[in-house]
Amino acid sequence: MEDHEILLKFQDPASRNLAFNQLVRKYQSKVYWHVRKMVVDHDDADDLTQDVFIKVWKHLENFRQDAQLFTWIYRIATNECLNFLSSKRRKFLLPLTDVGAELAAKIEADPALAGDEIELKLQQAILRLPDKQRLVFNLRYYDEMPYEQMAEVTGTSVGALKASYHHAVKKVEEYVTRTAAD
């Protein structure tokens, strides 16, 4: 079902629940994996995905349709991830590097995320990136999202996103090269 059809059904109180269920079915997996790449832990990703859809439910009737529905949902998911990671750092008084190391340890321990050695090194390198660079890298590399759409999701200029992605790629390459030599 197309987004505009879902939104039309959502406006009618009689079909609101059905429309929302269709929206969740359409985007739940994409949102979950977007969140999971940022927070790594399945339980955290599951909770955040649920929080995202609660926010979508609360605010969908005010959605102005000046962006694509998918982009709007991704923006909510992105903000939830960044707030969660920021809160986690504050709560545990962890510097950025410690959070990356903690998430990297979770990757090694999680059979659902474990891949071959190269994929594991890539994941560890990505987790060492600052949150916003990791977000940009994931959106571009895994989701193959165009910079213009990323700009809508993140509220950042296309030029800044390209620079951020470039820096992220360099850091990932340096990490993989450095660890391959060990």
From TrEMBL:
Residues 121-171 form the RNA polymerase sigma factor 70 region 4 type domain. Transmembrane segments: none annotated. Coiled coil: none annotated. CDD domains: Sigma70_r4. The keyword Transcription regulation applies. Signal peptide: none annotated. This is RNA polymerase sigma factor.
